[in-house]
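Appendix B. One record, verbatim.
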Amino acid sequence: MDLDRDAPPRLIDLDTFSSALGAGEFDACLHLLRNSEDTGSAAALLNCRLAEALFHNSRRDEALECGRRAFALAPDDRDTAHVCAWLFSNCGQHEEAAAAYERLLALAPDWAEGHRHLSGSLAAVGDLDGALAHALRALELMPDDNGAAVHAAELLLRRGRAGEAAALVRGAARDPSDHRVRACYPRSRCCWTSPMRRWRQSTMRWRAHPMTRNTTSIAGICCIAAGISKPLPRPSRPLPRSILRMPPPSARR
């Protein structure tokens, strides 16, 4: 697409932008957005659309540029904040992700998954107290969610509150129908009767599934609750960074 770079448009023509985006002409789209004087949620939406496309084409710096511009244009727009929270989190910009999740929670204070996502972002920047507060709020809003229980237990453990962490995991273990629990716990009714049994069972699961986040968390909780300081076996490959992320906005439509 031929753009007159000496006379940038003040307003974006939606059809021109959509055609360029559909054709994969991302540089042309970036030029339009960088030189536009459009404001508000409509312009933010265009930046969000391009940010998603750039992210999925491994152009993360430019995706972040568009996401930041979108969030500045319409921070109170729910759809914009959703896209920006997802983008910032997946690009490792956890402080900005936390700001977007906080904005979403201001619009929907009882959004359980939002509290959980914000907890993950705050934990990633070292704010464990804030992360724990939102993790417990998420668990309060969805008490039957085992993943929320394990996440909160992991944070309690990191704050030295091993007894409370173990209690949360015990509660999660009572629901054998959840695949996350089955992956981490034996079905034995006496799983919690013997400290040494707890440690042996958790390390056996660790050896079988070393890359499973819940296995890592629960094994550590089991060891500390059992009063055992022996370290877990070292996995054969590094653990991935564990951050609770939202699915891509396009997947929710």
